[in-house]
Task: inverse folding
C-alpha cells in the first residue's frame, strides 16, 4: 500500500517538475505592482499634462526592466531555496512562451504610439501581457492563468473605455499584481 | 474478475525506469542530462535503464547535434505509452481495492 502510494506520488511529482517551473516569487509581484503604481502616478501628474511622450516611454521601459529584474532575481533565489533547477527545459519554455507574445505586444504598442492612437496604449499593453501569461501558464504555477485572464479582460475594457484607460492600467499592472503577489506569498511560500 | 495485479508491468518496478517513463509521458522528448538531473542518478545507472526501456520498445532514442556537441534525446513510443498507461491504471485499481 505504502509503496503504491509512493510510486504514484513519485510519478506525479516527476511529471510536474519536468514540465513546470513553480518557484515564482510572490513578493516580486507585489514590488512590480508598486513600481507600476509609481509610474502611473508620474504619468497622471507630470507626463500627461506636459504631453511628454518620450519621458513616458522611457519610464514605461524602466518600470518593465525593473519588474522583470526583480521577478528574475527573487524567483532565482526561491528556486535555489527549493532546490529547483534554473537551467531546465521548463524554464526555457516558460521564458520563450512569455517573451515572444510580450515582445510582439511591445512592438505593437510602440507602433500605436507612433501612429497617435494614445487611447489604445493601455489596453494593448494589458491585453498582450494577459495573453502572454495565459500562454506561459502551461509551464509554471497554474494560478498564473487566472492572472492572465483578468489582465486580458482589463485590456479589453481599456480599449472599450479609453477615457478610463490609465485607471484600468493601474488596476491591472498595479493592484492586481500586488493582490496576486500577496496571495501567492501567503498561500504558496511557506 | 481479473486481478489488477495483471496490469502491472515488471519493467516499471524499477524507480529509475518508472521515473523516466513518467517524464516522457508528459514531454515530447527529453535529453539525457535533463532526465539525469531530475532522477538524481549516475550516468551509468540511467543509461543502463534507458537501454532496457529501448530494448523493450518503450522509448525511441535519437542522436542529434546541438552545434558541435552530440546530444541524445529520448521519446516515448506508442507501445511504451500503452504499457505505461496500463501500469498506472493497475496501480490506481490496487489503491482503490485496498482503501
Result:
Amino acid at each position: 500500500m505504502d509503496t503504491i502510494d509512493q510510486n504514484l506520488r513519485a510519478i506525479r511529482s516527476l511529471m510536474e517538475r519536468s514540465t513546470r517551473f513553480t518557484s515564482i516569487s510572490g513578493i516580486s509581484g507585489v514590488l512590480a505592482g508598486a513600481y507600476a503604481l509609481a509610474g502611473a502616478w508620474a504619468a497622471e501628474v507630470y507626463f500627461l499634462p506636459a504631453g511628454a511622450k518620450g519621458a513616458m516611454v522611457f519610464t514605461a521601459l524602466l518600470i518593465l526592466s525593473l519588474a522583470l529584474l526583480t521577478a528574475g532575481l527573487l524567483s532565482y533565489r526561491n528556486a535555489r531555496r527549493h532546490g529547483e533547477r534554473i537551467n531546465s527545459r521548463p524554464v526555457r519554455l516558460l521564458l520563450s512562451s512569455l517573451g515572444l507574445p510580450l515582445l510582439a505586444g511591445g512592438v505593437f504598442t510602440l507602433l500605436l504610439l507612433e501612429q497617435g492612437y494614445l487611447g489604445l496604449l493601455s489596453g494593448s499593453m494589458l491585453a498582450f501581457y494577459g495573453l502572454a501569461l495565459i500562454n506561459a501558464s502551461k509551464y509554471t504555477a497554474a494560478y498564473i492563468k487566472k492572472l492572465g485572464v483578468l489582465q486580458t479582460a482589463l485590456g479589453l475594457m481599456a480599449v472599450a473605455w479609453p477615457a478610463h484607460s490609465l485607471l484600468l492600467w493601474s488596476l491591472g499592472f498595479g493592484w492586481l499584481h500586488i493582490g496576486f503577489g500577496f496571495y501567492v506569498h501567503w498561500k504558496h511560500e511557506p | 474478475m481479473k486481478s489488477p495485479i495483471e496490469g502491472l508491468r515488471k519493467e516499471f518496478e524499477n524507480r529509475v525506469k518508472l521515473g523516466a517513463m513518467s517524464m516522457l509521458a508528459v514531454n515530447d522528448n527529453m535529453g539525457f542530462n535533463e532526465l539525469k538531473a531530475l532522477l538524481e542518478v549516475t550516468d551509468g545507472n540511467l543509461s543502463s535503464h534507458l537501454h532496457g526501456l529501448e530494448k523493450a520498445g518503450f522509448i525511441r532514442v535519437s542522436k542529434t547535434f546541438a552545434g558541435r556537441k552530440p546530444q541524445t534525446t529520448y521519446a516515448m513510443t506508442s507501445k511504451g505509452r500503452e504499457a505505461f498507461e496500463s501500469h498506472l491504471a493497475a496501480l490506481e485499481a490496487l489503491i482503490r481495492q485496498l482503501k
